[in-house]
Design a protein that fits this description.
Length: about 450
């Protein structure tokens, strides 16, 4: 395949990840300052508890809009930060939002109860019955509590992805209810025409970003590229590669190391979205994914027929050569995590060392391709086999394989236990954090 070689980022340049992260923080801080200013201009209630509750509600509204931005899958952010980190920030922002909304409800209720001499429960019921928008806010609160509950680690591990995702869609219902509550009773919302315009702009940008990134852009790209299965090639007893072709693929902004959410439009699979990395650097004519039979979705790939229509969302991920900081690289793969590593080796320039960690030689999927690429590009290739214990990528062993490891960018992809172990090894070997590149997001695995 012919691929475009991308030079590493000069050491003096500001890293794309830093630019995007700083930009997000700056946007959030600036909006928090604007919200505070409008709140002060609107005036304070005589009851301190009500004042605290109103501020909690305003910052909750801002966090809710920020949450939507984090999961809008906007290409500029995704390429620089990565869906795994954006999703993680979304998760923790969600828990912060949950507690802030609880605070908003509690402080407002107790504040009004103090002024009216009612008990808090009666006061809450009275507000819901007599004040427009409060009942909608209560429903939104219940929805957010449910969504927060199923997003906890204990529940998340016990739910199928489709079930979790369906429940999570109710977030948009909660957003609409919360917005109408803010319009109905938010004194800061109606305090001035500038404040009203500001809040409409905040919610418009947040919801517009979600609409653009998660609906309009995927529909446009799939209409433009008309993806279809070209061929299905078994790589091993439980591993298969699927070749995808389409129109104008040279204009699809995909890079080695990224992944797509693939839907194969057959009568029994169209509703399943399976995340797989591209296992070869995109060359403008076709895409390739390689998957191990780990579930119903991946196991059924070998039965796809050539010509099957494909709906792909993406490309996603920041696991690319865009984030390089050094002229030489170390690529570490474990198991089927070799797919983005193999693609990166094809695209990456400069001297590279590749370490492929598997239980046994028969598990080394795509090893022949790796060996040919290594010969062509002058890279070193090490196949490391054996059981997990003892750790064959412990600090002493890894330093022996790659003595200049601290001078290289390190790209790591593999099963979570292996990645955790290798990340610990890299810390012990004093590899600078900006030189370590990986993604943990489960969909990307």
């Amino acid at each position: 395949m012919t691929t475009v070689q991308s030079p590493p980022v000069p050491p003096t340049a500001i890293r794309p990840k830093v630019v995007a992260r700083t930009g997000l923080y700056a946007v959030l801080a600036a909006n928090a300052a604007v919200v505070t200013l409008f709140a002060v201009q609107a005036g304070f209630a005589s009851n301190a508890l009500v004042v605290i509750g109103r501020f909690a509600g305003l910052y909750s509204a801002l966090l809710m809009a920020f949450q939507l931005l984090l999961v809008a899958r906007l290409p500029w952010l995704d390429r620089r930060i990565g869906m795994d980190r954006l999703t993680n920030w979304h998760r923790w922002t969600g828990f912060s939002l949950l507690w802030m909304l609880v605070g908003h409800m509690v402080f407002i209720t107790f504040g009004y109860a103090e002024s009216s001499s009612m008990n808090p429960v009666s006061q809450l019921v009275d507000l819901a019955e007599t004040v427009e928008g409060v009942l909608r806010a209560a429903v939104a609160m219940v929805l957010i509590l449910v969504i927060g509950g199923v997003s906890g680690r204990w529940a998340r591990r016990r739910l199928a992805y489709e079930t979790w995702h369906f429940i999570h869609l109710y977030t948009y219902v909660a957003v609409v209810l919360a917005f109408t509550h803010q319009v109905a009773v938010g004194t800061t919302f109606t305090a001035s025409s500038a404040a009203t315009a500001y809040w409409y702009a905040v919610w418009g940008v947040a919801l517009g970003s979600v609409l653009l990134g998660r609906l309009v852009l995927p529909l446009w790209r799939n209409w433009r590229h008309q993806l279809r299965v070209e061929a299905v090639v078994p790589e091993a007893d439980n591993v298969v590669s699927v070749y995808i072709t389409g129109r104008d693929l040279d204009r699809l902004p995909a890079r080695a190391g990224q992944f797509f959410l693939w839907r194969f439009l057959t009568k029994d699979r169209w509703w399943q979205a399976n995340p797989f990395s591209v296992s070869a650097a995109p060359d403008g004519t076709r895409l390739r994914l390689t998957a191990k039979a780990a579930g119903d979705g991946s196991a059924g790939l070998r039965h796809l027929e050539p010509g099957t229509r494909v709906f792909a969302e993406g490309p996603y991920g920041a696991f690319t050569a865009m984030h390089r900081t050094r002229p030489e690289a170390l690529l570490i793969a474990g198991g089927v995590g070799v797919t983005p590593i193999r693609a990166l080796l094809e695209e990456i320039d400069g001297h590279a060392v590749v370490i492929y960690r598997v239980a046994g030689e028969r598990d080394a999927v795509l090893y022949d391709e790796l060996r040919e690429l290594a010969l062509t590009k002058g890279a070193e290739l090490h196949l490391v086999t054996g059981p997990p214990v003892p750790d064959r990528l412990a600090p002493r062993e890894l330093a022996a394989l790659v003595p200049d490891i601290a001078e290289r960018d390190v790209f790591l992809c593999g099963p979570p236990p292996m990645m955790n172990a290798v990340l610990g090894t890299l810390r012990e070997l004093d590899v600078p954090k900006p030189q370590i590149h990986f993604e943990r997001f489960s969909l990307a695995g």
